[in-house]
């Protein structure tokens, strides 16, 4: 029969509460009583399981992670980093994938089931914030799509990313630079577009055109097809994510338009396969591993001290130059 915390209490002649305090390394236990509990654990070959640790500490040892999709390689990198870093702190990670608030209410993210919650790229964070606060569950938002001062967050400097991508193309000599934006009302998309416009204005250039995509390959492909059918092409394209950039590349290559000889292309995110295409994709690398680690640090600090002020950490992306961008033909 498996040894329980109650067996340890009986063997030591002390209460379950005292055994729990020993398991939780409480300083209030008398040294002699601590020794009696440790000796009883040794004699019984007792190893505390998750339930015992929960009883001892009042914590579950579980962090909940809510996200909208797993169909994104960069999110996979974030989740892996979160999982590994939480494991270093003796926490388990539980996933919930949903786009609907009713699922959230039925989810495992109850105050007695998780010690904290990580919201990864929520499209409507306000939907969750009120409920989490009402339940007094510590939480952090990663890649927050709304600048919410009342919510601890880790965000990306998307304006800088958009600026750096466009400035790279300008420095190569491009003057007819188009932009494929993400969905409207998405903060990251808006900020990347603002960075694009600022870089052009700074250089005294006007946008070749801004076309809205949907952060997926087909939308980038369709935008490029419209350019091809119009007979008027930009010499360079900055797409607000790698999926749309790949769609643009696919459409151009199918029509014999060479990259970067005829059109240069820059994406955003640095998906894991961005350097495996031919030509490999110049892009803006988002520090997704750092996002995960920073988010865990913020959340664990809130779990230890719920009275801590909300923290917002902003991380800078980095331009990664590969084969899909080059000087325009008239400059070569």
Automatic annotation (TrEMBL):
The keyword Secreted does not apply. InterPro entries: HTH_LacI (IPR000843), LacI/GalR-like_sensor (IPR046335), Lambda_DNA-bd_dom_sf (IPR010982), Peripla_BP_I (IPR028082). It holds the Pfam family Peripla_BP_3. GO terms for molecular function: DNA-binding transcription factor activity; transcription cis-regulatory region binding. Residues 3-57 form the HTH lacI-type domain. SUPFAM superfamilies: lambda repressor-like DNA-binding domains, Periplasmic binding protein-like I. Keywords: DNA-binding, Transcription, Transcription regulation. Gene3D superfamilies: 3.40.50.2300, lambda repressor-like DNA-binding domains. It comes from the Bacteria. CDD domains: HTH_LacI (cd01392), PBP1_LacI_sugar_binding-like (cd06267). PANTHER family: HTH-TYPE TRANSCRIPTIONAL REGULATOR GALS, LACI-RELATED TRANSCRIPTIONAL REPRESSOR. This is LacI family transcriptional regulator.
């Amino acid at each position: 029969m498996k040894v329980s915390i109650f067996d340890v209490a009986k063997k030591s002649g002390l209460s379950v509460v005292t055994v729990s305090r020993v398991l939780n390394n409480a300083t209030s236990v008398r040294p002699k009583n601590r020794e009696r509990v440790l000796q009883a654990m040794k004699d019984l070959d007792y190893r505390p399981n998750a339930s015992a640790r929960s009883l001892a500490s009042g914590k579950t040892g579980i962090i909940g992670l809510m996200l909208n999709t797993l169909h994104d390689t960069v999110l996979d990198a974030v989740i892996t980093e979160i999982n590994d870093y939480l494991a270093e702190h003796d926490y388990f990670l539980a996933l919930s994938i949903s786009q609907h608030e009713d699922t959230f209410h039925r989810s495992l993210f109850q105050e007695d089931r998780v010690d904290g919650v990580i919201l990864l790229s929520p499209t409507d964070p306000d939907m969750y914030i009120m409920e989490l606060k009402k339940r007094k569950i510590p939480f952090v938002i990663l890649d927050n799509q709304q600048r919410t001062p009342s919510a601890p967050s880790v965000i990306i400097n998307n304006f800088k990313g958009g600026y750096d991508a466009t400035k790279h193309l300008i420095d190569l000599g491009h003057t007819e630079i188009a932009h494929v934006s993400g969905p409207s009302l998405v903060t990251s998309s808006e900020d990347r577009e603002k960075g694009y416009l600022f870089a052009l204005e700074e250089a005294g250039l006007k946008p070749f055109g801004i076309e809205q995509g949907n952060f997926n390959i087909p939308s980038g492909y369709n935008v490029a097809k419209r350019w091809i059918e119009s007979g008027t092409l930009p010499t360079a394209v900055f797409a607000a994510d790698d999926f749309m950039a790949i769609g643009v590349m696919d459409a151009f290559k199918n029509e014999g338009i060479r990259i970067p000889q005829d059109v240069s292309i820059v994406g955003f995110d640095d998906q894991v396969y961005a350097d495996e295409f031919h030509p490999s994709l110049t892009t803006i690398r988002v520090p997704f591993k750092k996002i995960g680690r920073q988010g865990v640090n913020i959340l664990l600090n809130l779990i230890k001290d719920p009275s801590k002020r909300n923290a917002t950490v902003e991380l800078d992306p980095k331009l990664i130059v590969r084969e899909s961008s080059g000087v325009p033909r008239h400059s070569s």
